[in-house]
Amino acid sequence: MIERLFDEVWNGRQFDKIDELYAPDFVADYRPFAPLREGSEAVQGMVERAWETFPDYHEEMLAIVVEGDQAAVHLRITGTQHGAWGPLPATGRRVEFEEMILFTFASDGRVARQRGIADNLTALNQLGNASGA
Length: 133
Prior knowledge:
This protein has a six-stranded mixed beta sheet with strand order 2-1-6-5-4-3. It is 26% helix and 38% strand. It is globular, with a radius of gyration of 15 Å. By secondary structure, it is an alpha+beta fold. β1 (22-29) and β2 (37-38) form a beta hairpin.
């Protein structure tokens, strides 16, 4: 299931798979760096924004630990910034940074919650914005 999330949705942009993999009451929590996002339609918005900013966007799963209804995933994100990323205008520079995500699954096996933290400071440094502003 986790491999399908990355292969089909995040890397493959197969939006028709979202409802199959994500619960309708899905919650994405990346606070304090992003607003709380709710609903499976939020997934498509997040994927679209990633690809608009980084047209060669790719997530590589480095490790996964599964216990009960949860999975912890360590991944590497790569891409070349050709669109604005928050307040940072396009730089044309390539980034490589890591993220940790804790997925919680609903009783039907779909993702109900995604809580993540990304190493945005590393990405900002690579984009030439070491201050993070």
